[in-house]
Design goal:
This protein is of the alpha/beta class. The chain has helices at 2-18, 33-48, 59-68, 156-159, 164-197, 217-221; strands at 21-28, 54-55, 93-108, 113-128, 133-150. The protein has one domain: Rossmann fold.
Length: 246
């Protein structure tokens, strides 16, 4: 019976996770649109191939994006999500991001060595239609450091050249880290939501303990019971005096 109960609970969890709808609005990046598009594509591809996530991409969502004008206004209010309640389930989660910082700079590691440092800061937002509130608002920081080469008495600006190959390689690593971090946060939110919905307490079926009665000495040695003889009321000292009797 325990096996069937466990299997049923796992089936419920699997079905619940597989029913999770995700609306990915995109990633806004005004200062670096190419980087934003590349990061958006990688995260969208990751969501598409992930079990337990169903990425919603239909005409209603595209119309919703057009009405919000998300590229110009990435900060969304609660009232702006109300139109989606007509077309999607309450369990739908809406995610979007904004690139806050993306830099690649050279720096001096010590007196004679230089290195490259890349930094990407992605603002991630997750809104739940079920609770009608933000369930996550935060920033994801990715940083990459690579040795560049020797540098003597020249300045960093004149002595270190950041090539296009360096930029592509570092950007690829930064975007990969940001995608994995965003995906991990989203999976944790989905798991937490599913766990709260499936809080099933299964009490163990334990038979009540019977009270054990220890045998008496008469039962062990088969001693017959002896009944006490009734007392005679006429015996001396055994009369019962009645109040008022002479």
């Amino acid at each position: 019976m325990k096996f069937y109960t466990t299997g049923f609970v796992l089936l419920l969890i699997t079905a619940s996770i597989s029913a999770r709808d995700i609306i990915f609005l995109g990633i806004s990046a005004h200062n670096a649109p190419a980087i934003g598009q590349s990061l958006e594509k990688q995260l969208r591809d990751q969501l598409n191939v992930s079990p337990g996530i169903r990425l919603i991409e239909d005409s209603q969502t595209q119309r919703f994006l057009y009405q919000l004008n998300f590229d110009i206004n990435p900060v969304l209010s609660k009232e702006q999500f109300q139109p989606l309640l007509m077309y999607h389930y309450d369990s739908t989660m809406i995610i979007w991001g904004t690139i806050k910082e993306c830099t690649i700079k050279a720096y001096r590691r010590n007196l004679i060595k230089s290195a490259l440092r890349g930094k990407l800061v992605l603002g991630l937002n997750v809104y739940s239609l079920d609770n009608q509130k933000y369930v996550y608002i935060g920033s994801i920081e990715s940083e990459v450091n690579e040795p560049k080469g020797w540098i003597l008495f020249e300045s960093i600006e004149n002595g270190v050249h950041i090539s296009s190959e360096d930029r592509l390689r570092i950007l690829s690593r930064l975007q990969g880290d940001a995608v994995q971090s965003s995906f991990s946060i989203l999976k944790a939110l989905l798991y937490e939501k599913t766990s709260k919905e499936l809080e099933i307490e299964i009490e163990p079926q334990i038979a009540p303990l019977e009270k054990s009665v220890e045998p008496s000495i008469s039962d062990v040695f088969s001693i017959p019971s002896i009944e006490a003889a009734p007392l005679d009321s006429n015996l001396e000292g055994g009369k019962n005096d009645t109040i008022g009797q002479k």
